[in-house]
Design brief:
The chain has helices at 2-13, 24-35, 40-47, 51-95, 98-115, 138-167. With 170 residues, the chain is mainly alpha-helical.
């Protein structure tokens, strides 16, 4: 008996602890802590495990699940865009309406963006969108910028409304 007690004492003294079972709740706490910007040590203290174990579960359990969800979401988004493109092509073949071709173009560009196959957009600044700063007070500059933002917002809303009407969605 005394030998057994000494062994238990020595292992505890050396830093060995009984392994803690990592439950789904603990994994969720690890994930939330990581996403909130906590350090591995802080997360480990919070759930009562070593920071190396936290790192292990992030790499081997949590991040692979995140990656799989991202892949699933991308597949779903690509499927939606493909459906929009097919429907737009069908409508264009019947109506020969250029709005349908615009939608096809949008779908192709959007699919390329989702897949990461696109060049950065070039910003063209013309007289309509150009803001001159020289000779204006900060209040005048802010007012003109706000006016432009409101105008662009109205244009975007009109576009979205037209798209909803076109597809018959609310």
């Amino acid at each position: 008996m005394p030998a057994k007690d000494q062994t238990q004492h020595q292992t505890r003294k050396a830093g060995y602890q009984k392994k803690k079972v990592v439950t789904p709740e603990v994994l969720e706490t690890i994930a939330k802590g990581f996403l909130c910007g906590k350090t591995l040590r802080e997360i480990g203290r919070e759930v009562g495990i070593n920071h190396n174990t936290v790192d292990y579960h992030l790499e081997k359990t949590i991040r692979p699940v995140w990656r799989e969800h991202i892949r699933d979401d991308l597949k779903e988004d690509l499927a939606k865009v493909a459906l929009i493109e097919r429907e737009a092509w069908k409508r264009y073949r019947v109506s020969q309406n250029l709005k349908d071709l615009d939608l096809v173009t949008w779908a192709i560009e959007h699919r390329a963006k989702i897949a990461g196959h696109y060049a950065p957009a070039k910003l063209e600044v013309g007289r309509k969108s150009e803001v001159r700063v020289a000779g204006k007070t900060p209040a005048e500059f802010n007012e003109e910028t706000l006016r432009m933002i409101v105008q662009r917002t109205k244009e975007r809303r009109a576009y979205e409304d037209a798209r909803k009407e076109y597809f018959g969605r609310n």
